[in-house]
Design brief:
Blueprint (H helix, E strand, L loop, with lengths): L2 E6 L7 E6 L4 H5 L5 E6 L2 E3 L10 E6 L3 H22 L4 E2 L4 E2 L2 E7 L6 H16 L3 E7 L1 H7 L4 H9 L2 H5 L1 H4 L7 E7 L6 E6 L13 E11 L8 E10 L2 H16 L2 H7 L3 E2 L9 E2 L1 H20 L2 E3 L5 E3 H7 L1 H4 L6 E2 L8 E3 L4 H8 L4 E2 L5 E5 L2 E3 L15 E11 L4 H19 L4 E5 L9 H19 L3 E4 L9 E7 L5 E10 L2 H4 L4 E2 L5 E2 L2 E10 H12 L12 E5 L5 H13 L4 E3 L6 H10 L4 E5 L1 H6 L1 E6 L5 E5 H14 L11
Parallel strand pairs: 1-5, 16-21, 20-28, 24-25, 31-32, 31-33
Antiparallel strand pairs: 1-2, 3-4, 3-5, 6-8, 7-8, 8-13, 9-10, 10-11, 12-13, 14-15, 17-19, 18-19, 21-23, 22-23, 23-30, 24-26, 26-27, 27-30, 28-29, 33-34, 34-35
This protein binds one RNA strand through strand 12, strand 13, helix 9, strand 27 and strand 30.
Amino acid sequence: MSEIRVQIRHDEGEARARNVTEGTTAADVLGGDRSVIAARVDGTLRDLSHPVQDGNLVEPVLASSEDGLAIIRHSCAHVMAQAVQELFPSARLGIGPPIKDGFYYDFDVDRPFAPEDLVRIEERMRAIVQTRQLFARREVSDEQAREELATEPYKLELIGLKGATASHDDMMSVEVGADTLTIYDNIDPANGQVAWKDLCRGPHLPSTRHIPAFKLMRSAAAYWRGSEKNPQLQRIYGTAWESKGSLANYLHLLAEAEKRDHRKIGKDLELFHFDPTAPGMPYWLPKGLRVLNNLLAFWREEHEERGYQEISTPLVNNKRLWEISGHWDHYRDNMFIIDNDDEEPSYALKPMNCPSAMIVFNLKTRSYRDLPLRLSDCDPLHRNERSGTLHGLLRVQKLQQDDAHIFITPDQIHEEFQRIFDIADRFYKIFDLDYKFRLGTRPESYIGDAETWESAEATLLSILDARTGGDYEVENGGGAFYGPKIDILMSDALGRPWQMGTIQLDFQLPRRFGCVYTDEHGQRQTPVVIHRVIYGALERFLGIYIEHTAGAFPLWLAPVQVSIIPVAPEYVEYAHKVADALHHAKVSVELDARNETLGMRVRVAQQQKVPLMLVLGAREAQSGTVSVRRRGERTLTTMDLGLFVDRVASAVRARVDVELPPDAG
RNA sequence: GCCGCCUUAGCUCAGUCGGUCAGAGCGGCUCACUCGUAAUGAGCAGGUCCGGGGUUCGACUCCCCGAGGCGGCUCCA
């Protein structure tokens, strides 16, 4: 046999050359380390059984690496599909890719899976893992694949889409790439028989015994190839890890994340309520509204400083307005329409503020000297969402955006965008939130001409490139119907992404509403409008922020900033004096003089996430001091009442944490 | 909108394979204790078992319809 020469590299270190005989596999080259479950050959992930070629650079893929976990999860998806088809012979296969923290597989089945089915499937999977089936890769022609998969209509459809899918849909391309089709056989080592097989690009684990830990999570319906027009398949989600410890750790993290759920915290802290009579439309309770008002007060200060002028406009408009704006044709399904049988025309609750801003712009003749004209509008909006899409505060039907419409000349676009990005930076830094950008381009349903759209998209692209150095996503077709947009995304406690702020470029609405300004040559011009929100919807922002902080708001935002706990009834009088002093200094106080033990009342304040607690007894009453306990800390500080009031009040005003003297006992 | 699951006291949840089983803890109220930094003790009150139909001698329990919620899909701030 002839010799070939390969390079082997471990841990990003120096590559070392080695001579091996032809036909040597990646596994042979990399040695018998059990934590190596695949190979990267010249940068491409391969099975360990892949024969290396002369000149290849071969690197190990560890089970615990990101690629390794994806392979474990992908192989686990196969095991699940095999179990499902063994238990439900009529089940037909959809696709089964690895995803963040796990995998799923879609099936066309006679009836949806019940929770008990998942238990049975999981048991069968454990049995399959026990048998140590081998994953064997085999290249097949299109014809051969069609023949072997004749009973799998969805796989046949994928074969027909081969090549076209790779660029369009990552999930589909897991099954078929652009090149030769491959089938993975699961071989039972006991008898050498093929126990199961699936059309798949791979790579896969050497055998099922390399799946150390997995768990099925839930089942749900999902449209075939992600389109509502297609039939629904039944999807089972699972998770898989390189060790039992990692699985346990992941499940623990999930449980912890659930405790941060803003819906639970909102109830515990009495922030808001959803009533069955108003789905998706929050009742703001006193404490929740206080937080919301604090957010808005901060927002107003910052925006007035930056030249924004706030307006408020009608909640209900005649449908004529929505016809002019295009909402009637492009957004009607999401609008609450008030239809009086005997009266023409209809009215609708506003789902967006933009048309009203156009009307305000048109109230005067405008000069280029008036631009940029920044009109903000935080009115409540109503959007009639499809049922099944609501989600606590994160997806509501009544919302308030920190909205603004900025009328500018075309050559002011770039600078105005920079100003908006600066505001976003300032806000998100204060709240310590992570975010990323996403560009949304022209959707299927749009107004205006393609050329204008393309130039607007190009403008946004160049701004984004300059701002982020290319660190952003592009969502084709993700724009608003009137223009392309840059969205700002954040994640909830479970890592699910949500669209928060958005900055949208609009050449269409000003034209539709006949907005004009006079330029420096006395010519009438149509302004460009930027629609922008920083918080996004206040409801969603607060929901995300609750999950981010687990309800432990910073001092300036907290609904109750100081909780006062007198040690015994005879000190209640002094406690009232302290409460009054704080109240007059515009600090939000709660006095807990209930007939409960001190420990109990401290505990309640702690659970209510009150930032500061004052315990008042004989010592304090006598010396005119307060004994301060910070949320989450056990160390106490005793300080003069007047000093404490000043410190807290100024910290609240400055929206910073309060500074207390070092521990004085 | 689609699929599945869920809905019992203010909250969190037991429970009945259809028959005095409507329960617990927390919370609330009352009383006692008068308390120094994450749960003092005792007693009392509190439920249209989501709503509407149906099956049955009998329905919180089974069936159908509806509402709301949860998890996804689709759609979006």
